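ESCALATION

Customer reports they have been waiting on this structure for their group meeting. Please prioritize. Original submission:
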Amino acid sequence: MSLPGAGYCIRCGAQLDPGHRFCWSCGSARYEAAPDQPAAGPAPPSPGTQPFAAAPATERPPSLGWLQFFFAAGAVFWLISLAQTAAVVAAPAGRAQLTQQLASAGVPATDLPFALAAYGLTAIFLGLVAATMHGVAFYGLRWRRRWGWVAAVLVAGLWSLVLVGIPFLYVLLKRSTRRAYGLD
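Update from on-call: job pushed to the front of the queue and completed.
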C-alpha cells in the first residue's frame, strides 16, 4: 500500500514517505517537479531500475564521516576530567594537596578555604560546560541541525585558541614579562 504523495528515490529506487526530503537509503535529494512543469510526467522508476536521464542534478548533503565522533570523544574526555577533579576536591588528601599548592602560590592562609572552594567550583563548572558543548556538537552534527554546527564551530574554535594560545600565555605569564609591564 502506498501513501498519497509517496514516491521513489531517483537514484536507488527506495520508497519514500511524503515528508522525506532526502532518501533514507542513499541520501539523494528527493526529486521535485518544477512549478511550471505539469505534475503528471514520466512515472518514477521502479525499485531496482536505473534512474531516468532527465533527473536534475541535486546537491547531496555532505558526509561528516567520523567528525561527529571526535566531539563525542571530547565529551567523554571532559566527563572523565570532571570526575577526576571532583574526586580530588572531595578527598581529604586531594584538598590538602590543593591547599598546599595554593599556599605555595602565595594565597594568604585566611583566604585558603575560599580559594579552594572557588577552584573546585570553577573547575567543575568549566568541565560541565565543556562536556555539554561537546555533547551538543555531537548530537547536533549527527541530526544535521544548525545549532549543532554552531556548537561544533565554537568548540573547535576554543580548542584552537587553547592549543595555539598556550605558548603566548606562557610568555605573558612569566615573571620577567609581568615585571616588564609593572605587574609584579
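Sent to customer with the following note: Residues 139 and 145 are 8 Å apart (CA to CA).
Escalation resolved.
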